[in-house]
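Good morning,

Both structures are done.
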Amino acid sequence: AEPKDLFGGTPSDNARIAFNVLEGEQGPKSDIILLNAAAGLVVAGIAEDLVDGIERSRASILSGAAKKCLSQLVSLSKELGKDE
């Protein structure tokens, strides 16, 4: 992949990219998202190594669990923002 293939954009652009990946879009950006998620799982002690973390992350995306979790986080964030 070329570096330009990995660039994000505005917060709205990045949110769209994340949701597209969670809906199954493949490409350089999804590869980076999987790698970052895998690293987080390793650091948290959930995955043994990056390969295990990538497999777990991919399974979470394919099952819809990752998208559901992000949607819940967005809803909670909006709800908490109403109190301000």
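Second structure follows.
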Amino acid sequence: MTTLVHVTHEAVQQAGGIGTVLRGLITARSYRAHCQRTILLGPLTEPDSAQPLGPDGEILYDASRSIRAADVADQLSAVERKFGVRLVYGRRLLTQDGRRASPEILLVDVSRPPERLNEFKRDLFLHFGLESHRYEHHWEYEQY
């Protein structure tokens, strides 16, 4: 089974062109013929929203709301504990020109940086030479 993960700040809310591109791509017959599983990974932009996956979304996992309907609930819970983050997981309906697709959505609450963020940045430097301090003033760098 082919799985594709798209990392985007428009996993739920379309703010610009990439959301349109992803909707067209994910609903295309040729894409669906070659990719059986699509995951949109992005930030949880509205942590207190009643519909964090949008009005056409279905929440399958959100520990803060005691929702654990996903088959992967135990694994998501383990990630939350290990990295000190909140995750919201589910599905969202995408439509384009009569075509429909329901990709999985995984949102990470970025409103409170995890305790281990600096440790992660240190590892990026040690293993890849990435100097995080040069980019920390860009909100997207901190977010992703």
